Amino acid sequence: MDIFSAFAVSFSLAADAMAVAVCCGLRSRNTDRKGALLTGGLFGFFQMLMSLLGWSIGKVGEPLTDGKESIISFVILLLLGIKMLSDSRHEPTEPLAAVGTKELVLFSIATSMDALALGTVLPLAVKAFSVFSLLTAVLLIGIVTFILSYSGFRFGHHFRRLSSRRAVFMSGCVLILLGFKILLMG
Question: What is the pTM of this model?
Answer without folding.
Answer: 0.72
